[in-house]
Amino acid sequence: MRVLAAMSGGVDSAVAAARAVEAGHEVIGVHLALSATPGTLRTGARGCCSKEDAGDARRAADVLGIPFYVWDFADRFKEDVIDDFVAAYAAGETPNPCLRCNEKIKFSALADRAQALGFDAVVTGHYAQLSDGVLRRAVDADKDQSYVLAVLTAGQLSRAMFPIGDTPKPRIRDEAAERGLAVANKPDSHDICFIPSGDTRAFLGAKIGVRPGAVVDTDGKKLADHDGVHGFTIGQRKGLGLAGPAADGKPRYVTGIDPDSGTVRVGSAEDLRVWTIDAERAIWTSGSAPDGPIECVAQVRAHGGTAAAVAEAVDGGLVVRLREPLTGVARGQAVVLYRADPLGDEVIGSGTISGTGQVEASRVGSEANAGRTR
């Protein structure tokens, strides 16, 4: 096959491209320029897509003996990922920009251009497994990225390749060294790629500005002032601007955010427990929604936040009834569903969380809307 290898400049994408070459595919390497003003050098492991990363990707392509190009996707990335991220926080949501980048950039904009140029698939260094259209968790549970790939449609998955998902990360580094790739020991990037400083609150404050509001307790009593709801997320404990813990001595957490009034509500750990999740924009990896309720495992964060559940497609979205409660579940996050079998590694679908409820699943029955919050 003729495949396009998305090369970020890191070890994972370099080895993925190498394996595609070794498998006999005609491989072309592409680095995505996602910033209009990329820094010359990254700071340690923070950020990515710098000039250094582009150079590392080019050198890896040279070692592999494949053609290499840099494609400018900065405008599309700003509109579909950065602007979306800022707007979501301004609306009191907690988005995951990696999901949006996969959905809108790597497997939409990039894949569409690749298809138009006659490529059969896009190869990436994501830690996930794909066989016969079925998306599964990676062998390396600590590096698994199936959660951030669950936004891909059946059509997008049919044109994707994840060559390294069957291998633990340490072995990927060993393989890179054996292949003579200089990125073998390059640190992994972490945090949000377009916020290399790691200071998300400062980044959002510069974009959104001051929008004063109040921090209140469960009774509506004002406890403090704040400069904007973008500085808070559900489950947050630190940086609340409070003088101390609650009267009972227990810590307080953000339990609700109202962007219209600018109100941030805080409460106890118990107040964070949710039993039902509403989600919109449901995506089913099989290409079609299930006919009725399905037993599954729901995951609400890239690593962790899982619970046995029953999910059902409803009006283009989905409703998830948890068998045990989850905490720190926020609007804007993704809920990803995995098949409830002994392996529990097959992705069924996903949706963007739009609301939660605190009525225990066993008591919800057909009255699933009782106790919902938005």
Automatic annotation (TrEMBL):
Coiled-coil spans in chain: none
Q: Does the keyword tRNA processing apply?
A: yes
Q: Which SUPFAM superfamilies does the record cross-reference, listed alphabetically?
A: Adenine nucleotide alpha hydrolases-like (SSF52402)
Q: What does the protein in this record do? A: Catalyzes the 2-thiolation of uridine at the wobble position (U34) of tRNA, leading to the formation of s(2)U34.
Q: Which Gene3D superfamilies match?
A: Adenine nucleotide alpha hydrolases-like domains, HUPs, Translation factors
| PANTHER family in the cross-refs | MITOCHONDRIAL TRNA-SPECIFIC 2-THIOURIDYLASE 1, TRNA 5-METHYLAMINOMETHYL-2-THIOURIDYLATE -METHYLTRANSFERASE
**What Enzyme Commission number(s) does the record list for this chain?**
2.8.1.13
> Has UniProt tagged this entry with the keyword Zinc?
no
**Where does the record place the tRNA-specific 2-thiouridylase MnmA-like C-terminal domain?**
277-353
Gene behind this protein: mnmA
To which species is this protein native? Nocardia callitridis
**Residues the entry annotates as binding ATP:** A6, M7, S8, G9, G10, V11, D12, S13, L32, G125
Q: What is this protein called?
A: tRNA-specific 2-thiouridylase MnmA
Q: What is its main location?
A: cytoplasm
Q: Where is this region: Disordered?
A: 354-374
* Marked site (Interaction with tRNA) residue numbers: H126, Q333
What are the residue boundaries of the tRNA-specific 2-thiouridylase MnmA-like central domain, all occurrences included?
Answer: 202-267
> Which reaction does this enzyme catalyse, per its entry?
S-sulfanyl-L-cysteinyl-[protein] + uridine(34) in tRNA + AH2 + ATP = 2-thiouridine(34) in tRNA + L-cysteinyl-[protein] + A + AMP + diphosphate + H(+)
Q: Which Pfam families match?
A: tRNA_Me_trans, tRNA_Me_trans_C, tRNA_Me_trans_M
Q: Where is this region: Interaction with tRNA?
A: 143-145
Active site: which residues?
Answer: C101, C193
* Homology family: Belongs to the MnmA/TRMU family.
